[in-house]
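FIELD: query
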Amino acid sequence: MAKVEVTMPKMGESITEGTVLEWHKQPGDRVEADEPLLEIGTDKV
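FIELD: result
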């Protein structure tokens, strides 16, 4: 199984970190381009 690094997109000037709320894929699942992989939450509204 290949390992791929996923970079969190920039979500705003003051947001520097987030928490994974939900994974949409399991290890070994196929992921297509632009397909949601996970859901991220931040402390900013």
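FIELD: remark
Residues 1-45 form one domain.
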